[in-house]
Amino acid sequence: MMQVCVVGLGYIGLPTAAMLASRGHEVIGCDINPRTLRMVGAGQASFQEPDLQMLLSAAVQTGRLRVQATPAEAECYILAVPTPFGPGKQPDLSFVEAATDAIAPLLRRGAVVILESTAPVGATEAVTARLAAARPDLRFPRHGEEDAEAEIRVAHCPERILPGSMLRELVANDRIIGGVTEACARAALRLYESFVTGQCYLTDCRTAEFVKLIENSYRDVNIAFANELSLIGDRLGVDVWRAIELANRHPRVAILQPGAGVGGHCIAVDPWFLVAAVPETARLIRAAREVNDAKPDWVAERILRHAARFRDPVVACFGLAYKPDVDDLRESPSVAIAERLARQGNLTLLVVEPHVAALPPALAGLDNVTLVDMATACREADIIAFLVGHKPFRRLDLQGLLGKVVVDAIGLMR
Ligand SMILES: NC(=O)c1ccc[n+]([C@@H]2O[C@H](COP(=O)([O-])OP(=O)(O)OC[C@H]3O[C@@H](n4cnc5c(N)ncnc54)[C@H](O)[C@@H]3O)[C@@H](O)[C@H]2O)c1
After folding, report:
1. Which residues contact 324 (CB under 8 A, 6 or more apart)?
2. DSSP 229
3. Pick from 145, 179, 213: which residue ends a domain?
4. Would you say 385 and 407 are in contact if contact means Cβ atoms under 8 Å apart?
5. Which domain holds residue 371?
6. Mean pLDDT for the chain?
7. Model pTM?
8. 89 tagged catalytic
9. In this structure, are residues 177 and 155 in contact, taking their beta carbons and an 8 Å threshold?
10. Last residue of some domain: 213, 247, 269?
C-alpha cells in the first residue's frame, strides 16, 4: 500500500482518491476550493455520481482519505487539476503549473508523479522540467533516455471514465500509462494495478498524451458528422433520425446521433490542443469543433423562429446538463441555448433540469427564466425544446404535448 496525494478533488480526482482509499492506500486529497474541502472532509460528495457517496463515506470514516488545502508529502502524487483552453483556444496549463509548484518542495527520492489531467503533447515533459528546476538536489528522468540513476518517476496516465459510470469504469477500463522513461511507466503501473482490472498498456508520455487527445477528437469528429447531417436533412426536408437509422443498417456504417451541440470539459476542449499544436494540419479536427460549436445557435434560431409566431411565447427547455443523466453543466450547449433564448427573445423561459436545485449563473440573474418541474413546463409552455435526453424526459407522456410546438434537438420523440 502507498501514501498517495491526489491534487484536485473534482470529477476525476475525487472518485480516484476514494477508489484508492477503498483499496487500502493512505490518501491525502487536496484542493484549492474551500467548499470542496469542507464537503469531502465531511464525507460528502461534491457532485452526483452513482456509488461515489458510499465509497467516499467509507474512505473518510476509515481515515484512509483525509483532505487538506495543500499537498502533503507522499510516495505518489496524482495531478487531476483542470486543463481548460485560454484566449485563442490555446491550452491553459496554469493549473498544472500551480499544482506542480505545490508538490515540488515535498518530493523525496523515489517519488512517483502522475499527471492525470488531459494535456497537450509535451506537457508531462514540461512538468518534469519544472520540477527539476525547482529541485536541483534531485535527479529527474528525461524523455527517451533510460536513466537508472533517476530519483523521481514521472508519467502521464490520462483518464477516460464516463460520467454516470465513473466508478465502474475507473476499475474496468483499460489504461494507457505513458512514462517519461520506461522505468517511469512501470513505477506508475504499480499504483494502477492496485485497482484497475482492465489492461494497462505502457508507452511513453508523448504517445499517452496524444492518445487521449485523439480519442476525444475521434468522438468530436463523429458527432460533428451527425450534427452536420441534421442541418443538411433539415434543409432537404429529410427526417435525419430515420435516415441515420436506415444508413446504420449498412454493415460498416455506424453514424452517431445528432444533438444540441457538444459540451463538457473534454470533447469540447481537448481537440483544440491538437489544433493549437499544428493549426495548419489539424483541419478536419478544427472543422468538427466549429460544426459542433455552431449547433446550439442553430437550435436556438429554430426555437426563436417558432416563438415569433406567438404573442407572449412561453418556451420550455428540457435539460441543461451537457449530456444525459448527469448534473454537470460545464460548457453545456443547452445552457448556451437557454441563455440565448432568454436574452434575445421576447419570451418567458421555463427550464427543466431535474439534476440541479438552482439555475446556473448564466441564467440565474435573468428575470424571464424560471427553473420548473416537468409537469409545470408541459402545462404552461407553448414551445417545448428537448435539449438533453435525461431518463425522466424519455418517460414523458407525449400525449400531454398535443397542441404544443416541439423542437426536438436530440431525437427524443422517436
Ligand atoms: N470530467 C471528466 O469526465 C474527465 C474525463 C477525462 C479527463 N478529464 C480531465 O481531468 C482533468 C480534471 O478534470 P475534472 O473534470 O476533474 O475537473 P474539475 O474542475 O472537476 O476538478 C478539478 C479540481 O482541481 C482543483 N484545483 C485546481 N487547481 C488546483 C491546485 N493548484 N491545487 C489543488 N487543487 C486544484 C479545483 O478546485 C477542482 O476541484 C482535466 O484535465 C480534464 O480534462 C476529465
Report:
1. 164, 388, 389, 390, 391
2. H
3. 213
4. yes
5. 296-408
6. 96
7. 0.93
8. no
9. yes
10. 213
